[in-house]
């Protein structure tokens, strides 16, 4: 009777994801992952042809985690993009290594920053754009770009501790930016 495989693809991917969250993508190597999940590198390469294949699955898992994070984020602001901005900034603070992978690392054309922010199925950005009153759709892309640059700057500052404003301090800043950018 054949021995049952104990180290499954799911165990490898979950281990890689946890290692990524704790230590960053640079620490997700075959040896470190094998040590982390308690095996040799052989089961990893039995499941994955190479580390690039694992990184692809890992990136997809990080994207799905971000989307779920956004869906679970408490919303309550009427002004468009405020909740999305708060969520993005909080994600950068709470999930630094995932944020770095998703939003501060180069990736292929199938994973643009817009695609990541918008979410695969949930269209977070499109939902927010639709909330802007009297919006000329010809300017929607420009408005989003300005808002995103503002949100992204705040989130990047949060990743290195230079942004220690409270939620209550951030909300009026986001509201003012969204209001001004929407009028231009």
Layout of helices and strands:
Layout: H1 9-23, H2 30-37, H3 42-47, H4 51-72, H5 82-94, H6 96-103, H7 113-118, H8 124-130, H9 140-159, H10 167-183
Question: What is the overall shape?
Answer: elongated
Major sheet attributes: none
Fraction of residues in helix = 55-70%
SS summary, helix count: 10
Assess the beta-strand content as a share of residues.
Answer: under 5%
**N-to-C span:** 71 Å
Q: Work out the count of structural domains.
A: 2
Look at the helices and sheets and give the structural class: mainly alpha
- Mean pLDDT figure: 91
Question: Can you count the beta strands?
Answer: 0
Explain this structure.
The protein has 10 helices and no strands. The radius of gyration is 19 Å and the shape is elongated. Helix content is 66%, strand content 0%. By secondary structure, the chain is mainly alpha-helical. It has helices at 9-23, 30-37, 42-47, 51-72, 82-94, 96-103, 113-118, 124-130, 140-159, 167-183. It folds into 2 domains: 1-48, Arc Repressor Mutant, subunit A; 63-183.
What is shown here, in short?
With 184 residues, the protein is mainly alpha-helical. Helix content is 66%, strand content 0%. α1 packs across α2, α5 packs parallel to α9 (140-159) and α9 packs antiparallel against α10.
Give the tags.
elongated, 10 helices, Arc Repressor Mutant, subunit A, 2 domains, mainly alpha, 184 residues
């Amino acid at each position: 009777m054949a021995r049952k495989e104990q180290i499954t693809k799911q165990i490898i991917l979950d281990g890689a994801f946890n290692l990524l969250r704790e230590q960053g993508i640079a620490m997700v190597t075959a040896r470190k992952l094998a040590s982390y999940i308690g095996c040799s590198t052989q089961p990893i390469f039995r499941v994955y042809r190479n580390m690039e294949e694992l990184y692809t699955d890992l990136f997809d898992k990080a994207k799905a985690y971000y989307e779920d994070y956004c869906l679970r984020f408490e919303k309550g602001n009427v002004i468009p993009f405020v909740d999305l901005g708060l969520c993005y900034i909080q994600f950068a603070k709470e999930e630094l290594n995932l944020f770095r992978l998703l939003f501060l690392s180069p990736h292929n054309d199938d994973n643009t920053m817009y695609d990541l922010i918008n979410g695969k199925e949930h269209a977070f950005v499109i939902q927010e754009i639709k909330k802007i009153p009297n919006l000329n759709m010809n300017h929607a892309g420009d408005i989003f770009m300005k808002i995103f640059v503002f949100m992204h700057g705040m989130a990047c500052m949060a990743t290195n501790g230079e942004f220690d404003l409270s939620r209550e301090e951030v909300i009026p800043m986001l509201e003012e930016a969204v209001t001004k950018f929407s009028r231009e």
